[in-house]
Protein 1
Amino acid sequence: MSDHIDNTDKIIFAEVARWLAAVRRRPGLVAHGCCHYCDEALAPALLFCNVDCRDDYEKEQAAMIRAGRAG
Ligand SMILES: [Zn+2]
């Protein structure tokens, strides 16, 4: 069973690393201790509580940019 757990950890770490790399490329967002999408309390360095919030936030931002009211 430990192999299964090890593999799960690798998958989770890979996803977290990919996600952190993605959010760190985003110059406009500053971590403020809450999720930028749902306002859930977070560790101070995080921008979103999970990838769903990040994806939804990006969709919302993209929609606002398309509508001409980014920011
Ligand atoms: Zn959230």
Protein 2
Amino acid sequence: FVSIASHQLRSPLTSVRGYISMIIEGSYGEVNPKVKEVLTHVSDASRHMALSIEDYLNVSRIEAGNMKYEIADYDLKKLVKEVVVELVPVAEKKGIKLEFKPATEECVAVKLDIGKSRQIVQNLIDNALKYTKDTGTITVVVRKDIQAKKAYVDVIDQGIGISPEGLKTLFQKFERAKNANEINVTGTGLGLYIARTMANGMGGDITVASEGEGKGSTFTFVMPLNGIEAKWN
Ligand SMILES: Nc1ncnc2c1ncn2[C@@H]1O[C@H](COP(=O)(O)OP(=O)(O)OP(=O)(O)O)[C@@H](O)[C@H]1O
Ligand SMILES: [Mg+2]
């Protein structure tokens, strides 16, 4: 049911979003600034709605065992850099510094689904932005361990941190830590569940470390190196 409902909501919402952005851009004539401001809120809300619908679709795909992966060889470092570049303006708006710090000069060749991997990295950075109250720095590191045959993407924040109890439940569906609710940021608690399931589906994982509330968090997306490193570098 969720899957059918989500599919049916998706296309009208896409057209609503299309019209709103055309009105904002002035395609139907000049828009006064007050109206434009209101429409910008409508546009943000509809974007949230679209993202939630995608999440519900993903959960129903997971539960039906229906998640499909299109696996290709790709440079994980390149992929992460692209996602970071897109999110820098979003971070700036919040007064947060988002920096990309690759720990290797070489490329990081991994077998992955490009769309899903982008979604995972986006998700981890979105959370880091969401759960940083004031100003701070988010550092995104890409590194590899040739011996262990693994690639790592660390998203390190200086945000609200996670208690030991929170660490135990945060990858479960609909689970949110107490301090996340306290700071009034909304969320459904689906992001990490979907992200970890996708990482597992590509042979990887997501791990988390935090020294406690108020002490920041580090989320790591781990993937196996594909073994063609030498050829690419
Ligand atoms: N960077 C972070 N710092 C502190 N807590 C975090 C961080 N990322 C996730 N969490 C905690 O893990 C919980 C689950 O995260 P998840 O992304 O699955 O859900 P969400 O952000 O609450 O909602 P959404 O489904 O919109 O992503 C969050 O509610 C929060 O308590
Ligand atoms: Mg989230």
